[in-house]
Amino acid sequence: MRSARRFGLIGAALVVGLFAGGGVAMATNPNGVASLGSASFTKGAQAPVSVASLAPCDVDGQQTNSSAAVVKPGVTFGGGTSSCTRTVTDPENDVTTTRSTATGKNFELSVLLSAGGPRIKLASYTVTCNATQTGTNAGWSFSGMSGISGLPQQIPNNYVAHVKKTNGTVLADVTVNEVMLPDPNDGSIALNLMHFHFLPASGISGELVIGATACAPTP
Questions:
Q1: First to last CA, the chain
Q2: Which has the higher per-residue pLDDT, 26 or 32?
Q3: Where on the phi/psi map is residue 98: left (φ > 0), alpha (ψ -120 to 50), or beta?
Q4: For 30, which DSSP code?
Q5: pLDDT (tens digit per residue) in 144-155
Q6: Res. 25: pLDDT tops 50
Q7: Counted domains in the chain
Q8: Is the Cβ–Cβ distance between 197 and 177 less than 8 Å?
Q9: What is d(CA 53, CA 61) in angstroms, rounded to the nearest whole number?
Q10: Which residues span the domain enclosing 120?
Q11: pLDDT tens digits, residue range 11-23?
């Protein structure tokens, strides 16, 4: 089963059981990972902009991480932390749970300004993925957003917002609350808070992710 719940205006969560469906199909998700985001785009003839996954953590590898602010032409990730932990809840039977989370701040996207688009800002954001033996749940929250308008009060999975010029030309599509489920379903889930895809009218090619996490049911 799947159910959604809200954290006020700025958050949502998704619960996935072993037989849930209805997200974007993908391969099996990792046991528990999270990061602040990443970017890979090119504006016209300028040098490509690349930001590797920031402050990545992994329950099977580096369990805590952090990043200072990263400033590149057209985009700033203001830094943040991540934590991916495994907790033993029943030692006699080796039962565990996992929690993977990343929290970032002061994100700013300015690359669309020269194309007549807005400056996009997020003051803070968090993504989280929790897993037990019976399923997973993923959630997000953000505050202090500007530059993207018209988001609904209740944001469904894989909601696509359009970043436009004042004349209505769409410069980028942004998938908010992007949920990816494996096919066939195994109860795991991946979540991106926001996933930008730049469109030809912007003069930019590539994509950018703010807040990423994934987890799978524990054994």
A1: 19
A2: 32
A3: beta
A4: P
A5: 999 998 898 889
A6: no
A7: 1
A8: no
A9: 15
A10: 4-215
A11: 444 555 544 444 4
